[in-house]
Design goal:
alpha+beta, Endonuclease, Chain A, 302 residues, 42% helix, four-stranded mixed β-sheet, three-stranded antiparallel β-sheet
């Protein structure tokens, strides 16, 4: 019968440095290779029974891997603020002062830049970039659609607001990224309730469609009928993103009954899925554009 791997009680449920555990006689190098422990970074391990999240990886990076003056940044910082996190296996974003020497480390995405006063804050004991600095960095590092996805999340959680982001950008006029941040702010909307809703809205707007209202409430004689992901109420055209929550058959049926009531109220409701956004956005865009044009012609002919 195979020998059970050693699991000292001092290390159960913990993230630790392998070299320290070995120097204290808790484990051997061979023990670290067993199924009881999961490597996170070089010389950093977790109990295999710990559910490793991106946040846990960020905490390990901040504690053991980044030099003084650096901070968790980008998407990793946004995740620590409560925005949707990257997959646990994705690299942790780190911002390092330009003058600080640090070599490449597997599992880290290292960026260099200067810190202005207030650009780094304490978040649950970790040094992270401020909400405004996080948004600025992401506007520089990501394409505009993905940057707006994060900005929507930061605005929805009231971690910052549009005036603060505009002021942050304007105070850095002439520096790389200030125009990118202003552009992302112009496209951002705190009403978005999921990253895919944000992606759908921004791609439609960038394609030349008028900006839709988010979470638009439809009422009939003062009674609630439905709340729509994206809506052009003047045309009675809406877009609904069908996400994974529709794996619940009962919820799916409730949503369909709700939308049937909308159709009875003369709304056009177009549905989009992640697959459609990925594989046939142009076709979906054409459908939305045709619906808006048809309703516009109908209004003009009255």
């Amino acid at each position: 019968m195979p020998k059970a791997p050693r699991r000292p009680p001092q290390l159960r449920g913990r993230v630790f440095r392998g070299s320290i555990a070995v120097s204290r006689g808790l484990l051997s190098r061979n023990d670290l290779r067993s199924s009881a422990w999961r490597p996170l970074f070089r010389d950093i391990y977790a109990d295999a029974e710990v559910r490793v999240t991106h946040g846990i990886r960020c905490a390990a990076v901040e504690r053991w891997l980044i030099p003084p003056g650096a901070a968790i940044a980008g998407r990793s910082a946004a995740a620590l603020y409560g925005c949707p996190a990257p997959a646990a296996s994705e690299p942790v974003d780190v911002l390092v002062p330009r003058a600080t020497r640090v070599g490449p480390t597997a599992g880290l995405r290292i960026r260099r830049g200067e810190f202005d006063p207030g650009d780094a804050v304490d978040r649950a004991g970790l040094r992270v970039t401020s909400p405004e600095r996080t948004c600025w960095d992401l506007a520089r590092w990501l394409d505009v659609v993905e940057a707006v996805v994060v900005l929507d999340g930061m605005l929805a959680r009231r971690l910052t607001d549009v005036p603060a982001l505009r002021e942050y950008a304007l105070n850095r006029a002439g520096r790389r990224g200030w125009r990118s941040l202003l552009r992302a702010v112009d496209l951002a909307d705190a009403g978005a309730e999921s990253p895919q809703e944000s992606r759908t809205r921004v791609r439609l707007v960038l394609a030349g469609l008028p900006r839709p209202q988010t979470q638009w409430v439809v009422a009939d004689k003062g009674r609630f009928v439905a709340r729509l992901d994206l809506a052009w109420p003047e045309f009675k055209v809406a877009v609904e993103y069908d996400g994974l929550w529709h794996d619940d058959p009962e919820q799916f049926q409730r949503d369909r009954r709700r939308l049937n009531r909308l159709l009875g109220n003369e709304w056009i409701v177009l549905h989009v899925t992640a697959k459609r956004l990925r594989d046939d956005f142009d076709g979906f865009l054409a459908e939305v554009r045709a619906a808006l044009q048809a309703r516009s012609r109908s209004i003009r002919s009255r």
